[in-house]
Amino acid sequence: xxxxxxxxxxxxxxxxxxxxxxxxxxxxxxxxxxxxxxxxxxxxxxxxxxxxxxxxxxxxxxxxxxxxxxxxxxxxxxxxxxxxxxxxxxxxxxxxxxxxxxxxxxxxxxxxxxxxxxxxxxxxxxxxxxxxxxxxxxxxxxxxxxxxxxxxxxxxxxxxxxxxxxxxxxxxxxxxxxxxxxxxxxxxxxxxxxxxxxxxxxxxxxxxxxxxxxxxxxxxxxxxxxxxxxxxxxxxxxxxxxxxxxxxxxxxxxxxxxxxxxxxxxxxxxxxxxxxxxxxxxxxxxxxxxxxxxxxxxxxxxxxxxxxxxxxxxxxxxxxxxxxxxxxxxxxxxxxxxxxxxxxxxxxxxxxxxxxxxxxxxxxxxxxxxxxxxxxxxxxxxxxxxxxxxxxxxxxxxxxxxxxxxxxxxxxxxxxxxxxxxxxxxxxxxxxxxxxxxxxxxxxxxxxxxxxxxxxxxxxxxxxxxxxxxxxxxxxxxxxxxxxxxxxxxxxxxxxxxxxxxxxxxxxxxxxxxxxxxxxxxxxxxxxxxxxxxxxxxxxxxxxxxxxxxxxxxxxxxxxxxxxxxxxxxxxxxxxxxxxxxxxxxxxxxxxxxxxxxxxxxxxxxxxxxxxxxxxxxxxxxxxxxxxxxxxxxxxxxxxxxxxxxxxxxxxxxxxxxxxxxxxxxxxxxxxxxxxxxxxxxxxxxxxxxxxxxxxxxxxxxxxxxxxxxxxxxxxxxxxxxxxxxxxxxxxxxxxxxxxxxxxxxxxxxxxxxxxxxxxxxxxxxxxxxxxxxxxxxxxxxx
RNA sequence: GGAUGGGUAGUCUAGCCUGGUUAGGAUACCUGUCUCACACACAGGUGGUCGAGAGUUCGAAUCUCUCCCCAUCCA
Length: 783
Hints:
The protein is of the alpha/beta class. Helices cover about 40% and strands about 15% of the residues. Helix 1 (about 15-25) crosses helix 20 (about 690-700), helix 9 (about 385-395) packs across helix 13 (about 495-510) and helix 17 packs parallel to helix 19. It is elongated, with a radius of gyration of 34 Å. It binds one RNA strand of 75 nucleotides through helix 9, helix 16, helix 18 and helix 21.
């Protein structure tokens, strides 16, 4: 009766051995077969260095559970692993690390520094992903800055260009003076920042009246082209189309009615400048005003600012306020908190200035995206609304050009004589800023001199074709048609309006098809107070040391048992430790059962207790299946833990110990069969969640083949009498009753409460007659 | 201001869609126990006006309405 398993607790150091075994046997390889393909459009993580985010690690653990669930339900799974390496974060990281300025050094040297930095960060990232037990395709992991990836980004852009879906426009756009580039609406965040609200006196032309105008942007006075008031504001009814005179600049501008003027803000009259905010842009457009460019691309005031030209925004503001005061144009100043648009990356206030940028058409596609999104299944359904709200709020096409370096180059050359933009043929990776064009004559004018475009794409241009890249679009027709559209896009809910939306847009434009059939949206990992983790709050928990201390399976099981589908989940180390206890319990149940022979064939007659637990087991399997069907691992994780610990180990195992130990007992085989049947099922049900410990127990106890090529159990495969579950409550209550009695009874010999093995005289109720023998032996019930 | 989700014992959470026994569980706390797998365990216990109010109903944590509070996203 020696257990096959010796060690008394689950040692997660074993995970490393198991990992290398899996790697050697290459158990997750993917090839085209006649089974249905199941492709996961894995989010490629950005290697931004430590600390990583525990919520992100949990996210990847769960994506792996999706992959394992699909594999164990008969699908041919392609689980790509990629690393996102384009964009601002690495540029900022590199500038800091090497104390350099991107625009003040050789472009190629800067790119080389970035690449080196990414390589180091990436290695660490891949290692942790592997250690977490991700069953992805690490052998062929991809990078979004590889020639192959960038060539696809460029090819798809050229395709859109040729179809007229790209245009160049000069229009007011969000501009980050610090990053020196255009940014999309989706990249803006808003913070309340302290600022001065200045109440300025505007003289009404041809009268002694004056209008008070409150503004947080007095430095933009020079670009003011109108003053607007609300048409319902009785204070200004008489002023429509009259002129007011700009203080300091002595220029006349008209007073107009516009519904966007808020009566309760300041004096109710608003000056409209080009451009203080998005509302100014709208008013300029609607009223047909002529814009005056007050700020240039470096964030300095222009000639239009007259005496205030050539200053930074803040300097200009200070000086304008001083002069306004000196000339008696200021009624008062207030210190207020103002909701200020900031660049998501650099946290610099953005400016709105007219810029030449390339736009990808998206407005025309919104009705189609609306319609097609109806065929996209959301897990959970409630997060569909985030996408719909975003689609409804999109007001402009997508500006895709960026004045940055570490990104995919926009593949355009300009003819020096006729200035026409010329695009190369799709297929390879182009770097116009350093390469000669692949043509020698301008198609328009025959010119022979060209200038390469030096801008790059918005990184979402790269990210938004991930489902095309991983299915080898344009590169392997056979594989692409087998794998596209893909099965599922797993992602976090905060990038629905960027990644999810842009991917739908681009894939629909390029293939006419929705790129996936399901979107699986995970909530945030939040801190112990329920607040979102962020580096600025300083409440980020790094997953590295946690995984190192507790092991991958504990971390994974914690993540599954804590995060209900789509809901935010709390990250607390105490609860991770709680998950570890279950790993230990599972291990010990296995250790105990490993001392009994495995009976795989079902005996013709099963004892009542055995039929009872099998009925409960069937219920468990059904519930777990329900969870797995919608990739909600919260359900199986908690259901299996509850069953294994509180029913199977606590009650059933104790009830059948007698029969299990006694080989002469008539119910011996029935007990051994049922014990192992239950435990095998528990292991299979947990395999997608905790792949290491289940593999170890499975291969030690039941098979020399991996558990991860098994199928998830089906409840109708278990031949059970569902009626038996009616005994569950009476059985657990009777057991409690006996335990209570023993505790209350003081032993005459020891003076302590009775030990659980001491005899006691309690009759088994008639209702539980079928279980009488097992219960009597379990509790040592004697007359 | 708008949208989404949530408010259940000290803390966390299930149940709510499909109203019905003493509102499950975890953790913490208290008490006891080494009982032939497990003290990372076992047994027992304290602790709840299910955010507030109203309505529907024989009956509401669950359905309806109003309000308050929290989180996240968007103006």
